[in-house]
User: What shape does this take?
Amino acid sequence: MSRDVIAIGSDHAGYALKSLLAAGLVADGYAVVDCGTDNETASVDYPDFGAAVAQLIADGQARFGVVVCGSGIGISIAANRNPAVRAALCTS
Assistant: This one.
C-alpha cells in the first residue's frame, strides 16, 4: 500500500465527486488531505480550492492533487497558476 499524500479539493458543484474520490483513495491506502469545500449547498469560489491544493503540492506536503468543479476547467486553471503544478482536465 502506498502512503503517498494526495491533496483533494472542490467547489460546491464538485463536492459529491470529491467525497467519493477521497473515500476511494483512503480505501486504497493513500493519505488524503481535504482542502475543502465541506458541503455542496453553500456556493463557494473554485479558485480558492484549486490554489489550496496546488500550494500543498508546491510546498511538498502532497505528492499529487485532485481538483473538481462543475466543469473541471476552472479549477484546473486555478491550480495551474502555481508554477510548481501542472493540472489537466480529465473526464474519464
